[in-house]
Structures are given as C-alpha cells and as structure tokens.
Amino acid sequence: QERLVESGGKLVQAGDSLRLSCAASLSTFSSFAMAWFRQAPGKEREFAAAINWKGLNTYYADSVKGRFIISRDNAKNTGYLQMSSLKPEDTAVYYCKLLDYWGQGTQVTVSS
Predict the structure, then answer these.
(1) Per DSSP, which regions of the chain are E strands?
(2) How far apart are CA 59 and CA 91, in angstroms?
(3) 78-83 and 68-73 as β-strands: parallel, antiparallel, unpaired?
(4) Three-state SS at 30
(5) What would the pLDDT profile of 21-52 be if each residue is shown by its tens digit?
(6) Averaged pLDDT of the chain
C-alpha cells in the first residue's frame, strides 16, 4: 500500500511554473511535518523544502528559496510544492517525505 503518492511532474521550459502534489493515505498526516526532496541524475537526494504540521512554518534550501513554495491542506491529506521560475538545474525526481515514509517520486524535467 502506497502511503505517499506524488503527482504533477512533467517536462516544462525554463521560466515555467509547476505544482507538485503529494497525496497521503496516512491518518497521521496532519500531525507531522512533511518535506520535499529531490534527486538529480547522478547526484544524491537533497532537501528542497519542509513545512510543519500546522503549515505555519516553512523551510527551504537556498537553491529554491524565493522560487518554490511549500504548502499543505490537512483536510485533504495533501501537500504541495509550487515551483516557479524553473531552471534546468531543477531537473530531478521529486519526492515527498512524512516521518519515515517516502513516495515513489515524480519526474520534473526543465528544458533550456
């Protein structure tokens, strides 16, 4: 049973915007912080953004600060990552994480 399912990834052009979703089938979703990570080809998985359980505190990697916005809707058990001003270096598989659970990832490809 998949606990976290990401969606929304696709091929876009540099400068475009994209919103990723992370649907959780965990009853504890609203009680814990969640995060987005990403892994580019040939690189290690890296932190991108995180949000606390209530959605009042957010944290970003320097590489995405000012361009990405993390949010969540606890009523829908869903987290989001709004990405704007996308760059080719944002190309990666994006994963959401809650506690020790990871989703399967969604591919974002940014062409120059």
Answers:
(1) 4-7, 11-13, 18-24, 34-39, 46-51, 58-60, 68-73, 78-83, 92-98, 101-102, 106-111
(2) 20
(3) antiparallel
(4) helix
(5) 999 998 889 999 999 999 999 999 999 999 99
(6) 96
Residue type, 71: S
**Residue among 43, 19, 30, 1 at smallest CA distance from 99:** 30
Region 73-79: what's the mean pLDDT? Answer: 96
The torsion of the CA quartet 27, 72, 39, 108, rounded to 10 degrees, works out to 120
Which 3 state secondary structure label does DSSP give 51? strand
86, 110 Cβ separation under 8 angstroms = yes
**What is the share, in percent, of the chain residues with pLDDT greater than 90?**
94
Give residue 38's identity as a one-letter amino acid code: R
Q: Which of 20, 81, 26, 77 is nearest to 49 (CA)?
A: 81
